[in-house]
Amino acid sequence: MIWQILLLIIYTLSLSVILIFSLGQAYLIFSYLKSKRKEDVVPVLPLDIPKVTIQLPLYNELYVVERLINSVCELNYPKSKLEIQVLDDSNDDSLILTREIIHQKQAEGFDIVHITRDKNIGFKAGALQFGLEKAKGEFVAIFDADFLPEKDFLQKLIPYFNSPEIGMVQSRWGHINQDYSLLTKVQGFGLDGHFTIEQTGRNEAGLFMNFNGTAGIWRKECIVAAGGWQHDTLTEDLDLSYRAQLKGWKFKYVENVITPAELPVESNALRSQQHRWTKGAIETSKKMVKEIWRADVGLKKKIFATLHLMNSYVFIFVLLTSILSVPVLFIKNQSEIPLIYFQLLSIFLLGFLIVSIFYLIASISKKESLSKFAKLFPMFLSVSMALSFHNSIAVLEGLFGFKSDFIRTPKFNITKLKDNFKSNIYVKRSLSKSFYIELFLCFYFFSGLIAAFHFQDFGLFPFHLMLFTGFSTLTFYALKHSWSSV
Asked: Which of 225, 349, 386, 432 has the most CB atoms within 10 Å of its CB?
């Protein structure tokens, strides 16, 4: 009886934590809807066009470096006001290709430089800081190798620096290959929620928001004043964002300026990206939460900044709730604990309702059909819950200070349905370390489905079905990509 009560306490506490974070999302929904009532005033490009430095951090980008540099050189901005820094830490044959492309662009009259370092200290953050110290521009635009900025990117975003207190302007990410597979569809679906509700909601409410690492522009003075790029976390973008805003700088998010990018199409690439984002957020929360609560920024900002930075902890509670849900089903049907307790747990469905509304509004904002939402949302939720195990490991690594290198997300130049990556040299030809545990969890949650029929109790059946579907999906793609790359 004692162990049953203990499990139920942990289960309830986990659900409570998830609900708290969901309530935070509910406020962002309210803030987003409020922003839609206002007419967006679009500033115009100043007559005195400022100098802009574009930084392109690269590391072994053989398949996409040419399209990236070509895209940047096609920006509608005066050549005399544009400096392009190719920050190249590559150690493979892409170095030669990049050098050839840069020589060609220099011959065409572009102020473009190939910056390499003897030692790859600090990874992306180190490269950005190294280039910043040489940058000639008043503003610094950053594009990762998988992005393809529209020609009017600078023309549309530079005008938002019309106030000297604006330190960063962020555009919305688009997806050039969202329809490639189920994996890319659910990634795009999730990112659209972040770039629609979260970023707009935070900006509208005057809360701290974050630079997303790419497809945005910084005022160089802001970066310097905030202490520059630092590499003591894996999310240098999130770290600098909070240091800058704590210094009093304001950020602007422009939802209607979309910068297309390539989503990871391979299972291990997705996992490495998720691991870096999750672990880096935990490292940044450890570094910044105390500073936030010491700052004179108001209670609301402190609360929502804390929820923002600590959001990755939710993965642990999602995992705990998922694993405990199977024994909870047995406890409900085989113990003397009053049924009223389990009925009261239904209050936590409010969290699910909030998440559903969150992504429904994001989908509607993109003018997606309700039928498409109905198909994608359950799969997104299933895969997200299944990733909780992998991401929980990242949370624990960040929490207990396990250091790891900045693992780049490999790019494949996959833009069409017929494209494939079998011959891509950056594909990992092995199963991830978490594969076998995820395979076990797949069968574990299948046992929950069987138990529902045994007890004729289907209250948790949809939850277990989504978990089984999510872990099955991850298992399928892990095997498929491992076999197809051999």
From this structure: 386
- End-to-end Cα separation, the chain, in angstroms: 52
Q: How would DSSP label each residue in 387-452?
A: THHHHHHHHHHHHTT--------------STT---TT-TT---S--TTHHHHHHHHHHHHHHHHHH
- The answer to whether 377 and 356 are in contact (CB under 8 A) is yes
* pTM to 2 decimal places: 0.95
CA dihedral 409, 410, 412, 415 (to 10 degrees): 0
Name the catalytic one among 144, 192, 237, 239: 237
User: Which two tokens mark 395?
Assistant: 């949370």
Q: Tell me the pairing of strands 216-219 and 139-142.
A: antiparallel
The question of whether 89 is a catalytic residue gets the answer yes
Catalytic member of 89, 146, 192, 239: 89
The dihedral over CA atoms of 244, 246, 251, 255, expressed in degrees to the nearest 10, equals 110
CATH architecture of the domain formed by 46-311: Alpha-Beta Complex (3.90)
What's the pLDDT tens digit per position in 444-472?
999 999 999 999 999 999 999 999 999 99
